[in-house]
Each structure stands twice: as C-alpha cells, then as structure tokens.
Amino acid sequence: MPARATVVIPNWNGERFLEMCLGSLRGQSSHGFETIVVDNGSTDGSIDFIERRFPEVKVVSLAENKGFAAAVNAGIEASAPGFVALLNNDTEQDRRWLEALVGAADAHPECAFFASKLVDFHDRRVLDGAGDAMRLSGLPYRLGHGEIDRGQFDEPCYVFGACAAAALYRKSLFEDVGLFDEDFVSYCEDGDLSFRARLAGHRCLYVPGAVVYHMGSASTGGKRSPTVTRLGTRNSLSLLVKDLPLSAAVHVLPFFLLGQLARLATAAATGTLRAHLEGIVGAWRLLPTMREKRAEIQKRKLVSDAEVRRMLRRSSLAATASIARRLRDRVLSR
Hints:
Layout: E1 5-11, H1 15-26, E2 33-40, H2 46-53, E3 58-62, H3 67-77, E4 83-87, E5 91-93, H4 97-107, E6 111-120, E7 127-129, E8 132-134, E9 140-142, E10 157-159, E11 166-170, H5 171-177, H6 189-199, E12 203-214, H7 226-243, H8 246-269, H9 273-299, H10 305-332
Parallel strand pairs: 1-2, 1-4, 2-3, 6-12
Antiparallel strand pairs: 4-11, 5-12, 6-7, 6-11, 8-9, 10-12
Helix pairs in contact: 1-2, 6-7, 7-9, 8-9, 8-10
C-alpha cells in the first residue's frame, strides 16, 4: 500500500545521531510511512552509514550545506501525497509518535498542521516544547520549554504553530501557503510558515501523545552559539516584516521595543552581542526581499486584522504563563 506519511529528516554531518534517530523510527507502531533523509553535503560518512544500516531509507543528496529550509523543502518535494512529518536528526521518538500525529490529523480535519510534545533528551523530566507561540514582542517562543513536566501539557489544544524539529503537516498546506522560506536558511523558518498558515486561515493542534526526545541545536554549536544567535535575530525580524499586518504592528510596537531591548541585554550578558548585531544588519539587508514577499502574503490573507491581534494576545499570554512556570521551577530547584 502507498505510504500515508513521509518522514523528512535534514542531515548535515550527523552520522553520530542517525543510529538513534533512524533506529527509533524503525520501531514505530505505525508502518504506513516512508523515510527520506536529505543530506546537506555531509563529509562524515552519513550517506554510507544510512545505505549500510538503513537501506529502507531514501536519501536525497544536496551538493552543499544549504541549511534547514532548503533541505526540508527538497524532502517535501520528494514526498508522497498525504502527510509530511519533519524531524530533526538529533531526536529519539516514542514508538507511538507518528501514530499519534496521524491519528490526530484524522480526528481533526479542521487542522492543517500538528505539534509534537518535545522532551529534553538528557533530562526527561524537563519539557523542550509543547507547540509554538508568537509573543506580542514579535519574538517566537516554544511553549513549555525548560518547564518540569507535571502534566500541564497532557491535553491536546490549539496552538499558534509547530516546531519543525518534530511536526506533521498536510501536504496540501504547502500547496496553499508555499514551502519554507530558504532565505531564512535555518531558525524561525517554522515560525514564518506557521504565521503564513494562520494568516491563510489554517489551524495547528498540539498532540501530547506524540512524544519526541530532543537534544536541540546539535548541528549548530548549541543554543547560544554565534550561528544560532545571528540567524535567530535576523530571521525573527524578517518574519515580522513578512507576516505582521500593519494594523497589528501599531498595537505590538511597545512590546516589540521592550522585547528587542531584552534581547540586546541577553546577548551582551551571554557574550553573543557581536552575533546579535550581525543578525540585525542581516535583517536590514534582507528588508527589500521580505517586503516583496510581504505584499503577496498580505494580499492572500483570509483572517481579519482584529483576529490576528486576538491570536497574538492569546499566544502571548500562553507564552508568558509558560515563562513564569519555567522561572518558578528554576527557583525551586536551587
């Protein structure tokens, strides 16, 4: 029978993760799927390893490292009709991960994409994410990140978007709103896709039974590396230029300015100020390109500006509550 879902995994010099990632995929309770690894010009023997250990996996080879967005786009274009699941290579999946996502998609035809429950790989008491939020400051946030898992995210719910480290999409969504923006290279490209999808009237469901254990930023040097900081800063600003309706921009401006000041202070405190400033310069250079894309996105928008403002307020409140719980957990653990 043809596969109902295709799991797309971008890889760049990630041979050390592939036994864990592909091995747990091989053990999934659901068997109606195919797996595509898109290799970003690896030089560590990743392709040979896959062909030797996991011959059932299809490999799409890119000549050079083009980043996350280009890699997953190549996998999406090579995927079968139905569902596309994106998965980072630095993950281990619960055996019911894909079954839970596809089951949720069958039960919720009103939703076009679905977020997994991400758990910290090294400390499995701690959450890594339970769906994505977009704050009034314009800064994306992964709900639940850093919180002790006390069951607060054990029920399905609608969320702003999905972290592409482990998410399921109806392939028809990409036909409607387009693929991931390759100008972003890596980071915030999933937030941009989520925002475009929400503007087009699509909904995202968080699925707590779809559990994935995630290392996070393993291919780019960690969460505070210069690469992550530069791309995160650049792309979060570019996302707003592309996606935020003008009337909403007026309402979020005070929160945006406070958020940018906080981000600047964090960069200075963590030794990543130079990378942060490089990201701002990069966003300025991309401004003409993002403004061109914005015109088409806003023209095709199907939800009202008032609904966008309500959407951002709800999402921002959820993020604020999550951050408060994380800070409380940090204090109590001392």
